[in-house]
Specification:
Blueprint (H helix, E strand, L loop, with lengths): L4 E6 L3 E8 L2 E5 L8 E2 L1 E4 L5 E3 L1 H9 L4 E3 L11 E3 L2 E3 L1 H20 L5 E6 L5 H13 L3 E7 H12 L4 E9 L4 E9 L2 E10 L4 H15 L4 H7 L1 H20 L2 E5 L11 H4 E5 H7 L1 H17 L9 E5 L6 H11 L12 H13 L9 E6 L3 E9 L2 E11 L3 E3 L1 E8 L8 E7 L9 E8 L10 E8 L5 E7 L4 E4 L11 H13 L8 H14 L4 H20 L2 H21 L13
Helix pairs in contact: 1-14, 2-3, 4-12, 5-7, 6-7, 14-16, 15-16
The chain binds adenosine monophosphate.
Amino acid sequence: MTGTIIGIDLGTTNSVVAIMEPDGPRLIPNALGQMLTPSVVGVDLEGNVVVGQVAMDLMVTHPERCTSQFKRRMGSEWTVTLGDRSFTPEELSGLVLRSVKQDAEADLGRPITRAVITVPAYFNDPQRKSTIHAGQIAGLTVERILNEPTAAALAYGLKDPGGDQVLLVFDLGGGTFDVSVVDVMDGAIEVKASAGEGFLGGEDFTRSIAARLLERRGLAFEHVEISAPRQVSRLLQQCELAKRALTKRDSTEVRVPNREGQLDLDPAASVEIVTRDEFKKWTEHLMARIEVPIRRALGDAHLKRTDIQEVILVGGATRMPRVIERVNDLFGKVPSCTINPDEVVALGAAVQAGLIGREATLDDLVVTDVAPFSLGIHISKAFGSEQRRGYFLPVIDRNTTIPVSRVQTVTTIGSNQTEIKVEIYQGEGRRVEDNLLIGEFTVAGIPRGPAGQPIEVRFTYDLNGVLEVEATVAATQRTFTHVVTRHSRGLTPDAIARAVEAMKILKTRPREEAVNRYLLQRAERIFGEIGADARTTLGEMLDGFEESLEIGDVEAIERHREALAAYLDILDSSTGDEQGGGGDGTW
Ligand code: AMP
């Protein structure tokens, strides 16, 4: 297969696309000229699907028409209704992937059909398969699913090829936390161990602030989330700004919106002060969870904290001074972030894409990765004459180098037993109830006979971290393959084909219109935050811009757009809004 392969960091909060070029990996900007595309999807009032910044702004005014953080739902049965259509997590991720694919096509001037997509190292099997299917829905062949910390190590390894050292990649993104211990020597990048937490990220820190501010008003976050979603949506946006401000300052103000999600025009009525110390106290429980995966990854790599020569920070949430401080305390050294933590994963994905595309510059680079969790099956154990169910038999131990193929032999436990059910689990618990069921299938046609008929179960874990399981009845040599996964709804080839067709008929706007939509959404958001005088001016400018769009006068559109954008910048700076991080190299 030929054609350029792009590298995509499909993030919980933002997605980033990059490509390998002769002098190194390069980020590709979106239609708005930004390197980070928010992983947000919405359906606007006219029924058009919008993605990225436009959807993010729509979310503030119409949260019921938008969704974010669906990466946390990959591999699950969850769906969401936006406008009059329901979407699966794979379709939502597919829309984000399609959007960055189109950005790459516009930048490179040719169609793109192949990609490397990154996932958290701790993503389980259904989540990885879902990601591959999201790529297919977006019209991409997924050449490799790459672990995010491995991608980061690749970007750093390429930057400093002479180095011979043990790195710890500390990856705290919007929704997930991963730690990998990586050995870099002479162009070989070897992941020794990975560990993580699927539900810990920057968004949890933001929600902690929101929950405490509502608590100050005698309200419970969970209740308000359901009864007043607009209030929560706007409050989260304000708390996100506060969290970022606390990266630079000792205290900050948060404007708490009313139940309709509007900010009081008199700031004194709604402002709450949050100090860095309070933020620290409110998030202590989250910080405590960070140490468990670090301990586990170091233990599996048979290393001590003092063996780590460099700690690499990845993910936007590592900008929090609290995180940097804790890393410093744990490892006794200042962590390294010479590559922007928002961009390093996409850059590494582009390097992996270059490796697959056999870019000459990468000739000497070799990467090996591991399976971050144990994989195995459900068995019964004999205690005297009694068989007790519920035990986990690992077939592939966690942190085994991949690709790997391993066999375990199990036996029938009853006489004349002709069938067994192979239940596949992932996890570290001794009992299956503590682990995650990721698939099951039945092996039939076992010849009748006494108990103890052997069945060989083979687990093959490929470079994408995707698992295949086969069971062979020793007596007949008949083989059964794992085809049914527990979370397989929406993931069969038929369902993917249907999703691809459904995607084609979704109403979207031309890519060029994104800039105009973005401006209109942004203006609408800011409109709700400013005083009467500014509203009159902004209203007039919006009328002029909308009229020029209606008429389709290209020159007038350009003129109004520039004036409006400049005015919004002024308003944004006076309402204390700041983008924080992202894309301009000034993080
Ligand atoms: P990622 O998934 O890597 O894009 O990380 C996104 C997360 O980083 C979000 O939860 C952001 O709130 C967080 N983040 C980005 N910039 C900052 C900042 N300056 N201070 C604190 N958190 C940030």
